[in-house]
């Protein structure tokens, strides 16, 4: 850190991040660090910018998908293949604390901005890499992204109904799990640097980051392959809990599960089925899972006689975890979405609208950041690069 | 930190974590901190332990799902509703750096271990909370878990085929995204504490943590609701990229996508379709997405004439991201899984087997931890609690 933060400073105040990230994983890592107090300069190719920014209709502005995770970052466009821009980039590296990259394997080396090269220039630099597979995997040199790692990790194979084909998970879980783990690694490395004074290489792979989400499935296969299932639809991935399903109400769908005995007893009392509550063979998850079809029928007979809002109120009152199934459009319009600082509307200087996410990480000592505008490609080129030229005539720092 | 770490110390060396987590989100947060160097004491109810440990068949040991994310933690069983155990717990809090809890709303307060109470006892404590919804949401008091937040967040609504119903995502993405964001918040708060000397409350909600994974879907609805889609099967959530799909080979399935022009040109050259490569209307993602059906046919005609392994080699050679679709059992058995320290086999002291995950966060200054044994419920009760009694006769710390 370049100065002593005030008592109100966020934990990453004074930390300078160079975000060379593309699409979701790298840029989301930088987004999380920014909301923890870091200053982020997003470095992209001149012309059309990184692939997510470039994916726009002719004549349109930066896509909303780009806006959502790039608010508040300065934008510098540099052609790293030109000598002059490469030199300017190395000057930025000298005063940076963190660099984030999720290029294809080999790209950073071919651009002359690999870890070894930059570490020699700035030993305090924390160099954060997100690749499809880790460096010690036989797949290390393969290109991959959210879609393909969903295939290679087993994620797709467990998604969908038992009588249907495997299917991609709708959310981009792989990219965002990768970016979040990377932000954790960077922050841990900053903590270490505060003691040692040295940076290091933080490395996360998309494949590694998504494997723990398959805990239920791995557990089933490792426990007994003969009783494990590939796809379980809306049921528990290990078929170890019941009720655990999505049930029809008279106006929609609700998800309900019980994982503990108080929840199960509360449900039985609400449904006036004291016989089930007092049945010793149903007193554990294991026992209930053996009678899953019967329990699903009992729950479903009750939910069909209620509307979703009433059913949720009654179930929550009985201590049973549950929720209405909502569409993305319903979530966008929901008052509960507007009440929390996650999906933010920004009016830009030129009067146009943009949307950015807040951060899921909330700290009691700090208010969430106000909504942050999205920089156009190269918007801060002059400001950042001229500061660089003036500081190179001044003092050196970063050691 | 209680002592000056050596130069080889991991970033969270000397940090004492109390893991009151249940099932996946809280315990995975503690798992990540442990692999960054923290010492973790897992505190559970006596008898059957937390719900994930309790979910075992009669006579069986701790379930594999529990093992996977609880290796290396000490286990202390304490009934927090008893005065004596509650006092012992408060003594543990006095020397703790981090507490993690993902109880139902209101439970921590009713147990007398809420943030305000524990902060008064130990102002350096970082108190980490994971709930279904954040404290400022109108849903703050609702109980929820992975399944139900998949429903409330819109995740289910975008998962599945356009002509089928919404379906739960197979992986427990919500719990693991929650736990990973929480570990990031804790580590950032430790960094802040290293300057201010004070702890704080770190708060993450499952709903907030999963929303960014719907970036493609939010973007589509916010850009133009008239052209947005609910479920897109194996296609891009915003229908903005092509090729982006799962394609049949002559022996299985492979996922393929192109997000940049070099990838698209490489694909066209591999498929000997220079006409498509040189077609200016196909030179951008936007243009290709408009001719998605045609492009899917072209790619699919080619993949059907190849086996999966050959197709992957050819496509990767052309710079196109792709991967084979694998089942969980194939991933368990795959040499690429055994080559990286993520899914680890442990032989316990009593000769039984267990399995634990490593950490996706890799740091160049530290080797991954060796596989870590799983403690039985209360295994360290005597060791931890007797140390407590002897230290209470000695000096005080933590201020």
Notable characteristics:
homodimer, 399 residues, alpha/beta, Rossmann fold, formyl-coa transferase, domain 3, 2 domains, 6-stranded parallel β-sheet, 3-stranded antiparallel β-sheet, 18 helices, disordered C terminus
Tally of extended strands of chain A?
12
Q: What is the count of helical runs of chain A?
A: 18
CATH topology of the largest domain in chain A: Rossmann fold
Q: What is the strand arrangement across the widest sheet of chain A?
A: 3-2-1-4-5-6
CATH architecture term of the largest domain in chain A: 3-Layer(aba) Sandwich
Distance between the termini of chain A: 11 Å
Q: What does this molecule look like?
A:
2 copies of one chain form a homodimer. With 399 residues, chain A is an alpha/beta fold. The first copy, chain A, folds into 2 domains: 16-212 and 340-392, Crotonobetainyl-coa:carnitine coa-transferase, domain 1 (Rossmann fold, 3-Layer(aba) Sandwich), CATH 3.40.50; 234-329, formyl-coa transferase, domain 3, CATH 3.30.1540.10. Helices cover 38% and strands 14% of the residues of chain A. The first copy, chain A, has 18 helices and 12 strands. The first copy, chain A, has helices at 25-35, 51-54, 64-68, 83-94, 107-110, 115-121, 146-152, 173-196, 206-210, 215-223, 261-270, 274-277, 285-289, 292-303, 308-317, 328-333, 335-339, 381-392, and strands at 16-19, 39-44, 74-77, 98-101, 126-131, 201-205, 244-248, 253-257, 322-324, 343-347, 353-357, 362-363. In chain A, the strands form 3 sheets. Chain A has a 6-stranded parallel sheet, with helices on both faces. In chain A, strands 7-8-9 form a 3-stranded antiparallel sheet, with helices on one face. The first copy, chain A, starts with 15 loop residues before the first strand and ends in a 7-residue tail after the last helix. Residues 1-7 and 394-399 of chain A have low confidence and may be disordered. The interface between A and B is large, with 157 and 157 residues. Strand 12 of chain A pairs antiparallel with strand 6 (201-205) of chain B, so a sheet runs across the interface.
């Amino acid at each position: 850190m370049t100065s002593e933060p005030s008592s109100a400073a966020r934990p990453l105040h004074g930390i300078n991040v160079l975000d060379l990230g593309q699409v979701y994983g790298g840029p989301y890592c930088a987004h999380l660090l920014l909301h923890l107090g870091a200053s982020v300069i997003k470095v992209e190719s001149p012309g059309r910018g990184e692939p997510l920014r470039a994916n726009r209709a002719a004549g349109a502005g930066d896509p909303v998908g780009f806006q959502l995770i790039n608010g508040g970052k300065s934008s510098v466009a540099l052609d790293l293949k030109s000598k002059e821009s490469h030199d300017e980039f190395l000057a930025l590296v000298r005063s940076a604390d963190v660099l984030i990259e999720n290029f294809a394997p080999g790209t950073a080396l071919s651009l002359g901005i690999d870890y070894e090269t930059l570490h020699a220039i700035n030993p305090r630099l924390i160099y954060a890499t997100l690749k499809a597979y880790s460096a010690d995997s036989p797949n290390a040199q393969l290109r991959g992204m959210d879609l393909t790692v969903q295939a290679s990790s087993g994620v797709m194979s467990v998604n969908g109904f038992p009588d249907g084909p495997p299917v991609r998970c709708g959310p981009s879980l792989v990219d965002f799990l990768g970016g979040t783990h990377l932000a954790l690694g960077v922050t841990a490395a900053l903590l270490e640097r505060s003691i040692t004074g040295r940076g290091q290489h933080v490395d996360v792979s998309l494949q590694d980051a998504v494997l723990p989400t398959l805990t239920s499935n791995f557990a089933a296969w490792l426990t007994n392959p003969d009783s494990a299932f590939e796809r379980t639809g809306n049921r528990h991935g290990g078929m170890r809990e019941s009720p655990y399903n999505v049930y029809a109400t008279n106006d929609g769908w609700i998800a309900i599960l019980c994982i503990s005995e108080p929840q199960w007893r509360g449900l039985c009392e609400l449904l006036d089925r004291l016989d089930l509550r007092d049945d010793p063979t149903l007193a554990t998850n294991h026992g209930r899972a053996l009678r899953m079809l019967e329990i699903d029928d009992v729950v479903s007979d009750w939910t069909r006689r209620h509307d979703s809002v009433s059913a949720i109120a009654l179930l929550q009152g009985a201590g049973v975890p549950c929720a209405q199934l909502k569409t993305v459009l319903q979530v966008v319009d929901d008052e509960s979405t507007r009440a929390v600082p996650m999906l933010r509307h920004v009016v830009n200087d030129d009067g146009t609208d943009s949307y950015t996410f807040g951060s899921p990480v909330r700290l009691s000592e700090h208010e969430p950041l106000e909504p942050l505008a999205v920089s156009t490609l190269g918007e801060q080129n002059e400001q950042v690069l001229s500061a660089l030229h003036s500081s190179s005539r001044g003092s050196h720092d970063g050691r």
